[in-house]
Amino acid sequence: MDFAARITRKPLPLDRNRAKSVRGLFPDLPRSVQELIEGVAGTSPYLAGLLEREAEWLPEALQHEDVVVRETDGFEALDAGELAAALRRAKRRVALFAALADLGGVWTLEQVTGALSDLADCAVDLALRVHVAHEIRRGKLPETQADVGGVFALAMGKGGARELNYSSDIDLIVLYDDAAYADDDQHEARAALIRATRKMAATLSDVNEHGYVFRTDLRLRPDASVTPVCISASAALAYYEAEGRTWERAAFIKARSAAGDIAAGERFLQELRPFVWRKHLDFAAIQDAHDMRLRIRDHKGLGGRLDVPGHNMKLGQGGIREIEFFTQTRQLIAGGRDPDLRSRDTVGGLAALAAKGWIPEDAAQELTEHYREHRDIEHRIQMVNDAQTHSLPKDRDGLAIVAAMMGESDVEGWIARLKSRLERVHELTESFFAPGDSRERPELSEEAQAIIARWPSYPAIRSNRAREIFKRVEPELLSRMARSGHMDEALVRFDSFLAGLPAGVQLFSLFDANPQLIELIVDICGTAPGLANYLARHSAVLDAVLGGSFFAPWPGAQALREELTQALQVALASPDGGYERALDAARRWAHEWHFRIGVHHLRGLIDADEAGGQYADLADACIAAMMPVTAADFASRHGPPPGRGAVVLGMGSLGARQLHASSDLDLIVIYDADGVDGSDGPRPLAPRPYYSRLTQAMITAISAPTAEGRLYEVDMRLRPSGRQGPVATSVQSFENYQMTEAWTWEHLALTRARIVGMAGEQASGLAEQVEALRLSVLRERGQEPRVMPDLATMRERIFAAKSSGGAWETKIGPGRLQDIDLIAQSCALRAGDPARGTVAQLRAGRRSGVMASESADQLSSVHRFLWRLHASVRLLTEKTMNFDEIGQGGQEFLLRECDCADPEELTARLKDVTSRAASTITDELPNDAGSDS
């Protein structure tokens, strides 16, 4: 290390007499180093004393940069008394070396804090080991294979982030792995490790003729007022799970397994992750952090006017803690969803937040610069007299010393610039924690006031905290509703949404921190009550709006499947994970994407056709990603799928890739045992019960409600023999049934069948066979003369059994969607064509000559119109549509989607197109209803 060549600055020697005290002590050092040493001695009495004391050691030490390793080499062999003295000498020398490297500009802030933090880690580890070894020699600690008796120290705060300053306390939580001891040994082990921990703390923090190593604070442990200095890991986990608070979660952002049994400490932190990092965006943490800041400020008396003399650089306005709280709170909000945001250090945290779009890049850079400057000033304050303080001197001479150590000779200019920096930090961070007062309520009608008067009785607003946050949000909500043009409708729908919320703190905090979401919720409530109901059931989906990619291009089915597969694997592999957690993860993931499709459709970013395809992509991804997970869980009990495995066929709208917001899924499962007698597992099963039970497990995985809701309703009635048939069918039985027993309606349904999921290593071959079989059935059975007569009879029965849903019915009835779907399926069947979608099947009919071109084109046009209307209605409401009840916002959405100028035009067009379609279909059918199907 060429120390002299790397010096870029030195403090001015304000006290020249003190500077003279070190002159001549280092004759062999380069002149630049001697000048630095004189400047240091002239500004810091503490460092001047160290320079005189370590004059013989320093010249050689400056030749090597690994000061911590060098100064602690061989300490493992020392006894407790020798170690205490040696560590104090090492601390003295490391502090001196770091101060020279810091003040000379040789080391960065991270190198300075890193060296001090490395020394702290080493000191804690050595002290723990020497005292645990003493307990073992005394026979007081039961035998265990665990390193250091299973005890470990978590470095918290600045130590955990490797950000220690010159006079930092070290905050530790000391725990032990109780799994390392037998039940009968727990009490004895605990007592011995408590003694070792107390002695460790004394070794480091007691002041003697050699000084001290680090003041050691053990009060961050769980329930410190009533617990001993070392408790078991299981007791700590139980505490955090039941009683942990937001400030403790924030503290664990920086936690690091630093000493003792490092592996046990890392296991503990892994198990604690669900406590620290919540699976949903946690905007409620903002209020907690803001309250904590205010309590600290009030307790320390740090409020009021900002003046540089006497200002606390850590806790005062615009200080280090404000930057740390700003960073940690943002990390708490989003770090549960994005592991990249979990940096322990402040600078790294700011960079990660900016990279992921959680804070502006320029704000992150500015706060980073201010943070570095603040930390440098903090270090120099402490260097002067080795004082445990963060407050600037109150007198001008004291400030001049600190300014000089910062390389500044213009004291007044430095003070002015520092005040400006502090004000700027306070401005940047305060706007995040306390964005300002909300606007006043708009004028409200008596009906609106009556609705609002009910809100305090709703579950979401009953707690004091929820009321406090909602009070800030409410005026903005009401103002945006007033500007929407249909205030009363939006208010009624929001009232219904609010009444359905089980809790409100998280959601209201989300609105408080992100006002742009208020506009979205008003838009949804004012336009699409169906989507609002979905949001009320799954309010966590709003997290996705803030994730950065909510309005990005649609990724496609394959990318969705890969993303969900990764999410499932993470859920399965996490310490508290497993199959049930994977099901919850799938539901959370799917709900967010489902909500995104609905919002994009509502806002006109996609049309109904695109939405139908995206809903189908989402369903495909869910089944394709979850089927292997369900099969693996089932195989753990009954062995892998026997034979070639199984495939899942998507039928109906799923097969046609045309789903809407509330579609269920029509599925069939086909398997091939391939001559295998049974599965090979702990509880083997014959093929038929194996695949039947696997299918039931798949249905449960998709449709059963969990804590996160359900994915889809599943309908298996299209399988051979309907409700009476087995839920899983062998490929041989399926082929035989389709060729010899199936009715025409089942062949029509087969035109839409599509492979959407597989289980088993050879299932891809089975999938190819099933698709070939499907085409074979269509080509052979589609030529039978009974197809159209059967279709005519089926049509009559449908109309007789299902009454129309009224003037706005789009699905059931002559000339409506189901009617067009059936005639389109007959085209694919009679043509033996693989097409699945309705329009593609009509086109196949035209190509093959089984339908006239004019008829195919007309029905395609009508189908597109009806689908746009149907899909849009299903987004607006989960009930039968009443045009007058959907309100102005919903009406405007439907008119936009259907390209109509007014309700009268839409009404007339719906009546006209269904009439023409019904007539066209009737013309395609034989006059005689034909045979009974």
Description of the structure:
The chain is mostly helical. The protein is built from 39 helices and ten strands. Strands 1, 2, 3, 4 and 5 form a five-stranded mixed sheet that branches. Strands 6, 7, 8, 9 and 10 form a five-stranded mixed sheet that branches. Helix 9 links the parallel strand 2 and strand 3. The C terminus is likely disordered.
Radius of gyration: 36 Å
Q: Count of DSSP helices?
A: 39
Question: Roughly how much helix do the residues carry, as a percent range?
Answer: 55-70%
Low-confidence stretches: 929-933
Percentage beta strand: 5-15%
Main sheet: strands, sense, barrel: 5 strands, mixed
Q: Characterize the overall form.
A: elongated
- Mean pLDDT metric: 87
Structural class: mainly alpha
Total E-strand runs: 10
Give the CA-CA distance, first to last residue. 93 Å
Brief characterization of the structure:
This protein has 933 residues and is mainly α.
Pick out its properties.
59% helix, 933 residues, five-stranded mixed β-sheet, mainly alpha, GlnE_rpt_dom, magnesium, 39 helices, Glutamine-synthetase adenylyltransferase, disordered C terminus, nucleotidyltransferase
SSE order and pairing:
Layout: H1 16-20, H2 31-43, H3 45-53, H4 58-61, H5 67-72, H6 80-103, H7 109-137, E1 151-155, H8 157-160, E2 170-176, H9 186-205, E3 216-217, E4 230-232, H10 233-243, H11 246-251, E5 256-260, H12 262-276, H13 284-300, H14 320-334, H15 346-355, H16 361-385, H17 396-405, H18 411-433, H19 446-454, H20 464-483, H21 487-500, H22 505-513, H23 516-527, H24 529-537, H25 542-545, H26 557-573, H27 579-602, H28 608-638, E6 645-651, H29 652-655, E7 665-672, H30 687-703, E8 714-715, E9 728-730, H31 731-740, H32 744-750, E10 754-759, H33 763-781, H34 787-801, H35 817-831, H36 838-848, H37 853-876, H38 887-898, H39 903-924
Parallel strand pairs: 2-3, 2-4, 7-8, 7-9
Antiparallel strand pairs: 1-2, 1-5, 6-7, 6-10
Helix pairs in contact: 2-3, 6-7, 7-9, 10-12, 13-14, 13-22, 14-15, 15-16, 16-17, 19-21, 20-21, 20-22, 20-23, 21-23, 21-24, 26-27, 26-28, 27-28, 28-30, 28-37, 31-33, 34-35, 35-36, 36-37, 37-38, 37-39
